[in-house]
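Bumping my old thread because nobody answered last time. Still need a sequence for this structure:
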């Protein structure tokens, strides 16, 4: 539990950590029933969340995204070749 959650990368508010437990009813394969637990870290303000089976993984993923790497994207001018457009129209 040592790792600190970084604030939301979008709004900077502290995220909400939840442990989700889903119960499945008993059936032939799992007579005692089964449950599935995972962790989520969410920002309710921004409506984003990420989850994983292991808390450490979620925290690591969240903290990785908390400092997004801004990539420079080269903008290419959009070139539309007139010849590539269908000629004529709907008559044919
Ligand atoms: Zn947020």
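Sorry it took so long. Here it is:
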């Amino acid at each position: 539990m040592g790792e600190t959650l970084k604030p939301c990368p979008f709004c900077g508010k502290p995220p909400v950590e939840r442990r989700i437990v889903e119960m499945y009813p008993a059936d032939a394969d799992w007579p005692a029933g089964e449950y599935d637990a995972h962790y989520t870290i969410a920002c309710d303000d921004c409506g984003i969340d990420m989850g994983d089976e292991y808390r450490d993984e979620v925290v690591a993923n969240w903290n990785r995204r908390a400092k997004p790497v801004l990539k420079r994207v080269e903008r290419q001018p959009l070139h539309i070749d007139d010849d590539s457009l269908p000629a004529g129209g709907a008559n044919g």
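The pocket of zinc ion is lined by residues 8, 10-11, 13, 43, 45-46 (CB under 6 Å). Let me know if any region looks off to you.
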